[in-house]
DNA sequence: GAGTGGTCTAGACCACCAG
DNA sequence: TGGTGGTCTAGACCACTCG
């Protein structure tokens, strides 16, 4: 008595839901528009709220939605392209639109992995904290590790910490004339302090960019920058940014 | 009557759990070791299974754990560095260890976003499917879009589809002498077909690398490659890969 | 068939934001 | 103060792997 099998592919509910919502976003909603709340949406689709949330989480991960506690769920704008390749690193945090803003500076022992890249031991290094803004939005938080030996001429007159000190370290580093860099990108989750700077909850997905700066045959500095994965598209390469993200995702999802 | 506030930071349980588990992984487990099952772990920590799973999901996202249905949860090895910067793209899918393996080739209309980058209309393009292996593990799946106009000398003798056709398109593309490339990286979730190739569930987090290849002043091809975000660290840059990931994460988490 | 992780439910309470 | 998303619970069943 073979049961007729019914070719039920058994697609998970949240997956199907995500597809439906994605199509609805394309056709029925404008960027910035507020969606119905989770309880209503769940009821409307006849699923538990947890299941609905699973679909929303995926869409947020893909940069389609933005959720804020106490406010609601809105349709996110397309991801912004953020250049990370430029050789002319904005060490001074100038007045350009895509600048890093120095926030603070401390002298601490580097994490062991960073120390290994720097070739230093456990002696303290300068740790410069910077925030990157784009269009008035914080998109990245960075910790820049600079061994004292890289910036020997750092004036003792400058403040021992704070923004002034940070700018001084960056200035000295800039004068070194860095020769090249080595970079890697991986997925991570935001530490509590980074999450706060980026206006996200702890654990939010981030793209961790680790950069090693060379000068005079050695590693002069190491940067660990965390970019908001929901809103950012990291761009590399010689020419300008490529300007497509949102549409592409729609296409990819559709197939 | 000010309530004494008690400085209860109200750290979520799953966040604390994640920290505890992370430390346990560092001290008490070896790579590849199997953890107790989720029901036991949840009982041991006195939380619901769903809460325990939230912590495990984060750790998997960070590449610390690997979970397989019907098998169990194991301690993941450090992420592998995968180079994506090399100019000498392995068009032919050679016999080197880090090669792309051509799988298939079809002639289809490109998604609109891809068509926009190519500057083509709706006419069909060659779509080459490739898989990238590292250490015997599939780490990336790619769709390479090549307009027919880019490879005019493509022999009609070659098969109209399949691996043979794929290799023929790659060979012709290689002969063009590509001049440069433009690249972007963003977070995405695996489509069903990519997930299957990568041995992951649909929706698994992936790093989507979009590359635009130039030749003779135009865009000769566009590649959309999806890398497993859990196991891969994408490396760019002039020199070799930087060899740190796992330890670094431990350090970052600890602070 | 036994055991694993994956999905789903129907509740509850909390932290946060705005009017 | 009311409404939102964020966290958490205690169950249930399913899909998958393996011996």
Automatic annotation (TrEMBL), chains A, B:
> Where does the UniProt annotation place the signal sequence?
none
An example Pfam family from this entry, by short name, is GntR
Q: Which CDD domains match?
A: WHTH_GntR
List, for all copies, the residue spans of the domain called HTH gntR-type. Answer: 11-78
Does Transcription regulation count among this protein's keywords? yes
Name the InterPro entries for this protein: Bact_HTH_transcr_reg, Chorismate_lyase_/UTRA_dom_sf, Tscrpt_reg_HTH_GntR, UTRA, WH-like_DNA-bd_sf, WH_DNA-bd_sf
Per UniProt, the keywords (alphabetical) are: DNA-binding, Transcription, Transcription regulation
What the entry lists under PANTHER family is as follows: GNTR-FAMILY TRANSCRIPTIONAL REGULATOR (PTHR44846:SF17), MANNOSYL-D-GLYCERATE TRANSPORT/METABOLISM SYSTEM REPRESSOR MNGR-RELATED (PTHR44846)
Any idea what this protein is called? Answer: GntR family transcriptional regulator
């Amino acid at each position: 008595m073979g049961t007729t099998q019914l070719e039920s592919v058994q697609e998970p509910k949240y997956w199907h839901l995500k597809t439906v919502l994605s199509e609805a976003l394309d056709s029925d909603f404008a960027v910035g528009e507020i969606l119905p709340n989770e309880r209503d949406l769940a009821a409307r689709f006849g699923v538990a709220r947890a299941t609905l949330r699973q679909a929303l989480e995926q869409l947020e991960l893909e940069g389609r939605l933005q959720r804020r506690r106490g406010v609601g769920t809105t349709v996110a704008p397309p991801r912004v392209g953020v250049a990370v390749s430029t050789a002319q690193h904005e060490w001074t945090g100038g007045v350009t639109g895509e600048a890093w803003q120095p926030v603070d500076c401390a002298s601490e022992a580097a994490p062991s992995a960073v120390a290994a890249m720097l070739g230093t031991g456990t002696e303290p290094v300068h740790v410069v904290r910077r925030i990157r803004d784009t269009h008035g939005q914080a998109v990245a938080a960075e910790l820049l590790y600079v061994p004292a030996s890289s910036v020997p001429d750092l004036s003792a007159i400058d403040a021992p910490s704070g923004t002034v000190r940070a700018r001084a370290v960056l200035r000295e580093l800039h004068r070194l004339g860095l020769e090249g860099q080595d970079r890697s990108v991986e997925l991570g989750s935001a530490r509590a302090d980074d999450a706060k700077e980026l206006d996200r909850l702890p654990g939010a997905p981030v793209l961790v960019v680790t950069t090693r700066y060379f000068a005079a045959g050695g590693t002069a500095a190491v940067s660990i920058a965390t970019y908001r994965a929901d809103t950012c598209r990291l761009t590399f390469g010689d020419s300008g940014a490529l300007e497509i993200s949102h549409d592409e995702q729609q296409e990819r999802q559709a197939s």
